[in-house]
Amino acid sequence: MIENQVGRRYAEAIYTIAEERGKVKETHTFLNSIMELYKNDITFRNFIQHPLLKVQEKEEVLREIFAEVSDELLQIAFYILEKGRISFIRNIVAEYLKIYYEKHQILDVVATFAVELSEEQKTKLIQKLKDKTKHEIRLETQVDESILGGGILKIGDQVMDGSLRKELQQIKNGKKS
């Protein structure tokens, strides 16, 4: 919970700065690069979290790694580093993306079905969701054969379970509506 609060607070500040500079997408790309490096490179993570190394030493290494990145973007990373919040980079990136989606009225939808949807089915689903929500839709599909049929839609924190597995469970429990 605290990670999400920290992530949201930093993401809001960073997003505001990025928006003022007209660098929203570039900032996201850069933050994402740091996150991927932090997540996937144990040597980098150990170095960046080392308590005995000075922040300036860590900044120099970041400057070398991201030599092609503008100084204004590097300053964002340096700020996160100085505040000791680099371990929250995943949360910051996730919250940054949420803010972007909120401002641009984009909904993240995870749709789970028993079989893979065709491109035509995906297009139809996106259009139905667009019509219903009045938002742009970013659809991620998953396959879970255990749901037997139907589907499960997760839109933000809301879950709509129309799976055959759920229907059968309700019938079994005598709660069919």
CATH fold node name of the largest domain: Peroxidase, domain 1
**Fraction in helix:** 55-70%
Element order, helices and strands? HHHHHHEHEEEH
| Total E-strand runs | 4
Give the low-pLDDT segments.
none
CATH class of the largest domain: Mainly Alpha
Report the biggest beta sheet as strand number plus sense, adding barrel if it closes. Answer: 4 strands, mixed
Instruction: Give the strand line-up of the largest sheet.
Output: 2-1-3-4
Distance between the termini: 35 Å
Number of domains: 2
Q: Which descriptor suits the 3D outline? A: elongated
CATH-defined architecture of the largest domain = Orthogonal Bundle
Q: Tell me the radius of gyration.
A: 21 Å
What structural class is derived from the secondary structure elements? alpha+beta
Membrane topology: Peripheral membrane protein
Protein name: ATP synthase subunit delta
Subcellular location: Cell membrane; Membrane
Family: Belongs to the ATPase delta chain family.
